[in-house]
Inverse folding.
């Protein structure tokens, strides 16, 4: 299991974005904890197998249609 | 706004230049009837009202647009290199979104299962990490450092090799792939996919190749590529939903789908949504 | 032939009422014949609005799943069966017991999480018929002693029209067709169509089955022609 913090930046002002991320994490069986939330920036901690964290990044890069994700920066917190 | 949005102002292939006749051929572009013909020795395209549409004759194909393209059609510099054989493969009609046809072309993970023992084979299924970027200067999606094991990489390949690929999306329904060229190390074979959007769920696919292959018969080269596309068609006509989702909320893209995701992001950014589905379903 | 004994005295009680194919029946619905899904194969099916992938494992276990790979939406009914798994033909994602994803070939090192699974439908086999339901019904699907599954046909006509042509109502009809005492199971399909799953007397000789086939095909033509007239 790996824990990483994702800093997601872009036009995330839609109220749909965070629930979308939560739902996608659940579909992947990835643990999620919200660290910080702003209209243009979201900091989220995810926990799961490395390939699933990659998949989480893939999903979030597209997200719901009314959000635009400009970039996702990943920082490893821990790995076991 | 008329049907097609931003995609209306893009260039699309509508036929092979060498097949043009004075009488012309009726076909469709984004739901509208058009006629492609030879007029005074040059290709001409007219819409359902007889209005002349802009025309470009390039890569052995006729290109047109229902709108007003701001940019020239993309180029493929390799095509002009001496010694390459240019192959118009012909047309393959597929009952799928034109965008899905392009997305499938960008995908390597399906090789062992859809093109079994030709472009891929088990147990060599792993997709190694590769790089994807949107090049702002040319406004194209590029995937580089793509590697995959192929039992028969091309007509000229004997035995299995690890093949290098680069992928390029240069228009909403066009992609060019560069792959290891077995007879000429250091060079790339070029295979392009030009997709004509007939409707949002029906397209004509015009593959085009520029190869260093002196030995193979032209018909063999064409048959090889046609076989590959027929195999792809069985997948493309059975994906749900029919339109390409720009919200992956009902899918599970992984790192192996990175090029697909970059392509969809690029479509989303430009409002290229003809053949796309905006909400997950 | 005397096969309509007490054992199937009330098959209608456990069969759904015909509908337009848009609503999901709550009881068992016949979806295919057991012989039409041999070992290690998959085929498409329907249950109300749902597309199904009906497949049989190497050991003979039958399953009915949503016909859509969670990865990129490819129909799983086009997939391939190895052992006790159904794999998607597109990227080879493999699914086992309960629809659980067990293999993602592009990422062989990954043990897929429990969260990745294909929605599963209830399925049971009785009298050579594969029955499906969204939620497990209270009892097993009906048995029909004395008859065996013979063949399935798709009819471009409403289930009610098909039932009427067979001289009955509902979805389980016992009648005489081509001189044989048969059981006809009617499955509502989308687009105003119906599936007809026919059970013929046990031990029928080939000539009798040929006659039955000819009779049911004629019946299908009549029903479809009548449906076209009214449309």
């Amino acid at each position: 299991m790996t824990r990483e913090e994702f800093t997601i930046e872009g036009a995330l002002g839609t109220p749909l974005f965070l629930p979308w991320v939560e739902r996608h994490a659940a579909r992947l069986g990835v643990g999620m904890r919200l660290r910080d939330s702003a209209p243009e920036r979201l900091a989220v901690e995810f926990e799961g197998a490395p390939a699933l964290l990659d998949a989480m990044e893939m999903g979030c890069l597209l997200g719901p249609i009314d959000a635009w994700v400009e970039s996702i920066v990943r920082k490893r917190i821990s790995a076991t | 706004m008329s049907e097609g949005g931003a995609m209306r102002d893009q260039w699309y292939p509508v036929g092979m230049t060498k097949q043009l006749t004075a009488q012309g051929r009726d076909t469709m572009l984004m739901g509208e009837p058009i006629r492609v013909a030879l007029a005074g020795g040059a290709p001409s395209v007219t819409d359902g009202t007889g209005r002349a549409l802009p025309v470009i004759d390039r890569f052995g194909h006729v290109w047109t647009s229902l709108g007003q393209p701001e940019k020239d059609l993309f180029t493929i510099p390799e095509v002009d290199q001496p010694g390459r054989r240019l192959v118009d493969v012909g047309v393959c009609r597929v009952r799928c979104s034109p965008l899905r046809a392009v997305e499938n072309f960008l995908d390597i993970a399906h090789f062992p299962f859809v093109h079994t023992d030709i472009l891929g084979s088990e147990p060599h299924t792993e997709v190694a990490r590769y790089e994807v970027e949107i090049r702002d200067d040319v406004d194209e999606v590029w995937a580089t450092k793509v590697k995959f094991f192929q039992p028969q990489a091309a007509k000229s390949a004997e035995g299995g090799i690890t093949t290098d690929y680069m992928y390029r999306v240069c228009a909403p329904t066009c992609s060019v792939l560069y792959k290891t060229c077995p007879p000429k190390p250091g060079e790339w074979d070029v295979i392009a996919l030009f997709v004509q959007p007939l409707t949002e769920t029906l397209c004509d696919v015009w593959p085009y190749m520029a190869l260093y292959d002196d030995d193979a018969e032209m018909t063999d080269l064409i048959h090889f590529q046609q076989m590959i596309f027929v195999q792809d068609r069985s997948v493309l006509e059975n994906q749900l939903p029919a339109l390409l989702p720009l919200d992956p909320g009902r899918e599970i893209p992984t790192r192996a789908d990175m090029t697909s995701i970059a392509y969809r992001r690029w479509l989303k950014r430009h409002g290229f949504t003809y053949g796309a589905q905006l909400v997950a379903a | 032939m005397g096969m309509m004994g007490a054992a199937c005295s009330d098959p209608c009680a456990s069969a759904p009422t015909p509908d337009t194919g848009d609503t999901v029946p709550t009881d068992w619905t016949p979806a295919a014949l057991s012989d039409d899904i041999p070992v290690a194969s998959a085929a498409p099916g329907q249950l109300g609005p749902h597309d199904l992938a009906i497949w049989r494992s190497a050991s003979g276990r039958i399953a009915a799943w949503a016909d859509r790979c969670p990865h990129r939406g490819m129909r799983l009914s086009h997939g391939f069966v190895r052992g006790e798994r159904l794999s998607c033909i597109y990227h080879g994602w493999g699914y086992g017991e309960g629809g659980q994803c067990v293999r993602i070939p592009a990422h062989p090192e990954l043990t897929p999480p429990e969260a990745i699974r294909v929605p599963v439908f209830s399925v049971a086999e009785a009298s050579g018929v594969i029955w499906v339901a969204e939620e497990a019904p209270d009892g097993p699907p009906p048995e029909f002693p004395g008859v065996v599954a013979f063949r399935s046909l798709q009819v471009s006509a409403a289930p009610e029209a098909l039932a009427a042509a067979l001289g009955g109502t509902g979805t389980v009809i016992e009648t005489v067709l081509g001189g044989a005492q048969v059981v006809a199971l009617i499955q509502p399909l989308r687009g105003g169509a119906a599936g007809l799953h026919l059970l013929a007397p046990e031990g029928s000789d080939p000539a009798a089955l040929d006659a039955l086939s000819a009779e049911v095909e004629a019946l299908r033509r009549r029903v479809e022609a009548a449906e076209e007239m009214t449309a």
